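fwd from M.: "can u put these together and see what the complex looks like"

so here's what she sent:
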Amino acid sequence: MSKSEKETTEGQILEAAKNVFQRKGMDGSRMQEIADEAGINKALLHYYYRSKQMLFEAVFKNAFSLMAPQLNGILNDDSTIEDKIRHFTHNYLTFMNKHPYLPKFIIHEVNRNPEFILNLRNVTGFPNLDKFKKQVESEVENGTIKPISAEQLFINIMALNIFPFIATPLIKAFVNIDDKSFKQLMEDRKTEVADFIIQSIKVKP
Amino acid sequence: MSKSEKETTEGQILEAAKNVFQRKGMDGSRMQEIADEAGINKALLHYYYRSKQMLFEAVFKNAFSLMAPQLNGILNDDSTIEDKIRHFTHNYLTFMNKHPYLPKFIIHEVNRNPEFILNLRNVTGFPNLDKFKKQVESEVENGTIKPISAEQLFINIMALNIFPFIATPLIKAFVNIDDKSFKQLMEDRKTEVADFIIQSIKVKP
DNA sequence: ATATTTGTTAACCATTTGGTTAAACCATAT
DNA sequence: ATATGGTTTAACCAAATGGTTAACAAATAT
C-alpha cells in the first residue's frame, strides 16, 4: 500500500500551506510559517513547489475543486427546484462546518486576482448554469414557481448560504451574540434558508 | 475659507491610503505605493500617521463609519418592516455603486483581525438590533409578517444585498456574463431583492 | 559494495519593506 | 532681514522575506 497523501512530505507541505494560506491569505502568509507548520526546512518548499506563487496555486486549485462540486450539486441533478434548494441548503451548510475558511479564502483571492478564475473555467466540473436556467424557465412557465430569472435566483441562493460564513465576525458583532448562540443560528439556517427561499418563489395552490 | 480635506497633505494621504488599502488590503499594500499614489515622499506618511498600522486604522475607521449608518438606516426608522426593506435595499445598492470596495475591504479586514471590531462597538452609531427585533416580533405577533426571527431576517437582508459586491468576480464567472450584463443584473436587484424578501415574509390578506 | 539519484538541511543572498534621520524648504511672526 | 515653527525630502538602516546553494543523508539502482 503506497503512502497516503498525508504522510508524504509533499502532502504535508500542501496541508500546511492550506492551513496558513486559508487563514492568512496569499499576501499575509510567510513561507517560513508554512515550513514551520509542516515541520520541515524552508528550502523543501521550493524543492517541491518552486515558488510561493506555485504553492499557492496548488492550494487554491485544491480549494476550488472542493467548492465547485458543491455548487454543481444544485445545478445538475434532476429534482424539482424546490427539492434542489432544500437539498443544497442543508448540504452546503453542513459542508461549510467542515471547511469554514473555504469561502472567505476563495472569494478574497479571486478578488485579488480576478483573471485567476478564468484559467479554471475548463477544468474540474466548473459550475455551469445552463441546465438550471432551462429548469427555472420551465417551472416559471408552467406556474410551479413565481417569475424570477435563474441568475437572480442563483445569486440569492449563493448569498443566503455563503454570506454568513464570510461575514461571521461582522454578524456576531451586529447581532451581539456569543459563539454558542451564533452556532445555533447557523444550525437553524439549514432549514430556515430553504424555507425562506421557497416561500418567496413558490406559488400556493 | 479653510482648506478642504482633499487639499491638505494629510487628506491626500488618507485618500491615497484608502484607495490602496481598499484595493489590496493591509497585507498586500506597500507604504511606498501609498506615497506614490499621494504624490509625496514616504517619510511624510510616517510624519502624519506614525506607522502603517495607524494609517490603516484611520482608513478602516473611516470606511466603517461610512458603512455603519447605512445599516442603521434599516434598523432605526419608524416605517413598517416592508417599507424598511424596500427603502434599504434600494439605498444600499445605490450606495455600493459609489463605494464598490467597501464591503470586501471591511469584511476581509474584520476576518483578519476579529478583535478589531470590538473597539468600534462604542463609537459611530454602531448598528444595534434591539429596536428592529422588537418591531419584527410585534409584526409577527399581529400577523403582518410570517414568523421569522429578527436575527435571521437581518442576516438574510445583509446577505442578499451585500454578497454580490463581495463575490462579483465569482458570480460573473459562474453566471458567465460580461460586465455590462452584470451591471444590469445588479441594477435589477434594487427592486428584485426587496420583492424577494417581502414575498417570503409577507402574509397575504 | 558502490554509484546514482532523491530528499533534506544550514547557511547564505539579493531585494523589499517599514521606519528613521538630518538636512533643506517655506511660511509666518518678530 | 531674520529667527522660528511646521513641512518635505533624499539618503539611510535594520529586519524580514522569497529564493538559492552546496553539502550531507538516505534510498535505489547497478
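replying to her w this: The mean pLDDT of chain B is 93.
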